[in-house]
Structures are given as structure tokens and as C-alpha cells.
Input
Amino acid sequence: MRVVILFFLASTLLLNCKNETPATANNADSTNAAATETIPGLAVAVDSNFMQLDALGFQEILKKKPNTAIFDLRTAEDFKRGHIYKAINRPYSDSIAFLTYFTELAPSQPIALYDNNGYISNKVGTLLAPNHNFVYILKEGIYSWYAAQIPVVTF
Output
């Protein structure tokens, strides 16, 4: 069964190469008009499954849900230059091995994703959302985090 799911995810990932960005709202975007959760401090209601957040909204969700698994999808070099506290570096690739890691996470585990500009994390988040209860994307990537002057960890 996992092989079928992995094949489906990998096929979808490889075929889903459109360069589209969804319409954005103040702090959060919902992929579903039926909002099931509201977060204090955010301007709009959000879907409980998949949500795009600006830097301040992303920071707020990480405070609200401290058990969120945070994944930096950038290269190891970019990660070393600066990353969000508690982030795990999982450089993006089109391989099945990349997607396998996420299938090992419990569906109830909140997942936060970011990259440089938000494109890759949005693509990966769209694939993960059907199998996970909470997927959060940093809209406009780490650049929005830097622009908001929120501290990062370096090493």
C-alpha cells in the first residue's frame, strides 16, 4: 500500500510543475472555502488541512502548536546560513526517498514547510495535505521571514 501511495505522490509531484501561485490574503490563505479553524491574530479563517501563512502568521502557528515538525526544504548550505528555530533540513528532490520521509509521519502531526520563495513548499504541501491533518506553508518562503526581521538560527 505504501508503494502505491509513494508512486502516486511521486507521479503527482513530477507532473505538477505549473508555475502558479494562489491568491493571497493578509496572513493566511485557505485552500478550501469551508473554514474549520480560526487563529487569533490572523485576519482570515483557515482550513484545518492546508494553510499558507505570512511570516508573522507562521511564527504564531509555531508558538500555538509547539509540536509542529518544521522542515526547511532548501539546500544544506542555505540552511546553515540561517534557518527557523527547530527546523529540520530536508533538501527538496523529485525522488521517492524524499517523499518517503513524510509518509512516515503520523497524519495528526502538524507539518510546517518553507523554502526560499514558497514555490517548492507549496508544491510539497499540496501533496502532503490529503494525508495530514495540518500542513502550514511559509508564504514567500524564508525571504518573508527575513523581511519581517524575525530571528533565525545560524551555524
Observations:
- The chain has one domain: 2-147.
- The helical segments are 2-15, 55-64, 76-81, 96-103, 119-128, 141-147.
- The chain is about 35% helix and 15% strand.
- Strands lie at 28-30, 50-53, 69-72, 87-89, 111-114, 135-138.
